[in-house]
Amino acid sequence: MLLSDVAAELNVSDSQVYHMVRSGELPAIKIGGRGQWRVERAKLEEYIQHKYAETASWVRENPLTDPS
């Protein structure tokens, strides 16, 4: 997938996806003479599942408190 496709899938900006790729947060490959980035759909799905698990853990550790 192009980084712009990943950005559309995640509903974030292209620059956010580029940062995720360059930081190693989202696995990607660089191909072609111009070095264009590509993300495998399977890697994106793994990333999304990891984020769901990470968020669920955070929610458990940070419960809402009753204001009363």
Radius of gyration: 16 Å
Number of helical regions: 3
Alpha-beta classification:
mainly alpha
Q: What spatial order of strands do you see in the largest sheet?
A: 1-2
General form: elongated
Helix-strand pattern, N to C?
HHEEH
Instruction: Report, as a whole number of angstroms, the end-to-end distance.
Output: 49 Å
Mean pLDDT: 94
Largest sheet: 2 strands, antiparallel
Brief overview:
The protein has 68 residues and is mainly alpha-helical. The protein contains three helices and two strands, in the order H-H-E-E-H.
Keyword list:
68 residues, mainly alpha, two-stranded antiparallel ribbon, 3 helices, 2 strands, elongated
Question: What would you note in describing this structure?
Answer:
The radius of gyration is 16 Å and the shape is elongated. The N and C termini lie far apart (49 Å). With 68 residues, the protein is mostly helical. Helix 1 crosses helix 2 (14-22). The protein has helices at 3-10, 14-22, 41-61; strands at 29-31, 36-38.
Topology summary:
Blueprint (H helix, E strand, L loop, with lengths): L2 H8 L3 H9 L6 E3 L4 E3 L2 H21 L7
Antiparallel strand pairs: 1-2
